[in-house]
Amino acid sequence: MATDGHSRDHDGLGGEYRIAHLRDRLAADEVGELGLRIELHGAHVTVRGTVPDEHHRAAVERIVAQALAGLTVHTDIVVADASAPTTAEDLA
Question: 51, 10, 49, 7: which is closest to 32 by C-alpha?
Answer without folding.
Answer: 51
